[in-house]
Amino acid sequence: MLGRATVLLILGRAAADEDDYVWHKRDNPSKGCDWVAAYVPTRCAVKGEDGTTGAASCDACASIVDLAAFTGTFIGGKITVNKNGKLVTLTRLSLVVDDDGALRGVNEWADASGTEFGFDEAGDPVDTNAENVIGVVDSLGIGLFVEMNSQQGTGEVQFDGAELVLRFTQPYPYPVVYSARLRKTSDEPASEVPPWDDLESPT
């Protein structure tokens, strides 16, 4: 039984101070920084002809999200698919981030009827409904995350200052896929976030 698993969030890092008007999407000169700016932050991760990303060359990708905006409570829906079928849950994510972007928090969920539960390593339902979260964030607001349990699933995260989107996949032998859209509801975490030394270590 997992109890509180630990999740690692690793987010994007580079951003330009001003637009590099020579930059364009690889094999498509018509898609430059104006094209990137029309769909931030997703297009900030697109690689250009010179091998750099839009984030490294386009001003629209700089300072998208203030680090302080990551601290607080995020609530929304999550759709999870595993060997037991589809599950729709209500999810609450409580986060604390410091001035360097080091992040910790608690991810909690319940199904639409209010029943609280999670899944063990075999994908079977258990009584727990919370995971500890650790990570590193920056003003770009996009990146990857990894659950620090025996399954080592991976996913991506995007945050625009108001809505936080998580997409996750965990491979065989216990496959799990989920997608969550969470809106920020408070600048304060709703649940008590454990200090660093109380976060469960990966096994």
Task: Give your account of this protein's structure.
The protein is mainly beta and 203 residues long. Helices cover 4% and strands 41% of the residues. It has 2 helices and 11 strands; from the N terminus they run βααββββββββββ. The protein has helices at residues 33-37, 54-57, and strands at 5-11, 72-82, 85-97, 102-111, 118-119, 125-126, 130-136, 142-147, 154-159, 163-170, 176-186. Strands 1-7-4-3-2-11-10-9-8 form a 9-stranded mixed β-barrel. Strands 5-6 form a two-stranded antiparallel ribbon. β8 (142-147) and β9 form a beta hairpin. The longest helix is centred in the N-terminal third of the chain and has 5 residues, at 33-37. The protein is globular, with a radius of gyration of 18 Å.
**What is the arithmetic mean of pLDDT?**
74
- The low-confidence parts are 10-17
- The computed structural class is mainly beta
Question: Gyration radius, to the nearest Å?
Answer: 18 Å
Order of helices and strands: EHHEEEEEEEEEE
Can you list the strand order of the major beta sheet? 1-7-4-3-2-11-10-9-8
Q: What fraction, in percent, of the residue positions are helical?
A: under 10%
Distance between the termini: 12 Å
* Major β-sheet profile: 9 strands, mixed, barrel
Which descriptors would you attach to this protein?
203 residues, mainly beta, nine-stranded mixed β-barrel, two-stranded antiparallel ribbon, 41% strand
